[in-house]
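Quick one before lunch.
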Amino acid sequence: MSLLFVTGTGTEVGKTAVTAALAALAVRAGRSTAVLKPGQTGVSATEPGDAEEVARLVGASLTTRELARYPEPLAPETAARRSGLPFLTLDQFTHAVGELTERHDITLVEGAGGLLVRYDHQGLTLADMAAAVEAEVLLVATAGLGTLNATTLTAEALRARGLRLAGVVIGCWPAEPDLATRCNLADLPTAAGAPLLGALPAAATATPGVPFADLAAAALAPALGGHWDADAFAAAHRP
Ligand SMILES: Nc1ncnc2c1ncn2[C@@H]1O[C@H](COP(=O)(O)OP(=O)(O)OP(=O)(O)O)[C@@H](O)[C@H]1O
Ligand SMILES: [Mg+2]
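Model of the adenosine-5'-triphosphate complex:
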């Protein structure tokens, strides 16, 4: 996989954390890695955005790129409209992806919020961007009650656009999973029509003393470069 889009069942679900885990494993495997955040909202001009947060978590050399930034914590279209700053364009996006994929072994693209969040007044979405460059999509899902519906909706929207869902990763697996969370391990692959490819533990981005790449390897399946075992994980948490 040389180009992978990371979307989520919503905002604040762990897309950046999972993108960092993917990048950490790619870098450790000796692959040149780029992280692209097409539209960053909710940070001022001087604050680090999600791409920089990925670089911080990985702690190694990584290309980061951002194409548009708006200070208010809103969907990109709304934030652009309110700020008077230009919308991101599909041309700008495909150009950047072309440049990054040419120079890197792997390019990770992190969307803003969920799949169908708008980037411009004509309704440009991350799904349109993935379609334009024929990329696969990884879905970061919440762990608990409500995730099956959001996962099903996202999977259906991807299928309707002819996009391939590579799998689902739980962005933040709690230390004490409740009944719904544990049941979801069996039901998420059905909802997604794609395999569960990992579960990042809740402390992953703030665990002192353990290299982040080690945490990433333990939390992501072999298809994503780690050694997480879906069957063993499900068996350990079976209600
Ligand atoms: N596995 C995890 N371990 C520790 N913290 C996490 C984990 N997953 C998410 N978080 C924390 O939850 C918050 C949201 O996570 P993150 O920024 O990765 O979400 P996101 O889906 O990228 O959000 P956005 O839509 O704003 O891009 C962050 O403060 C992050 O540090
Ligand atoms: Mg993010």
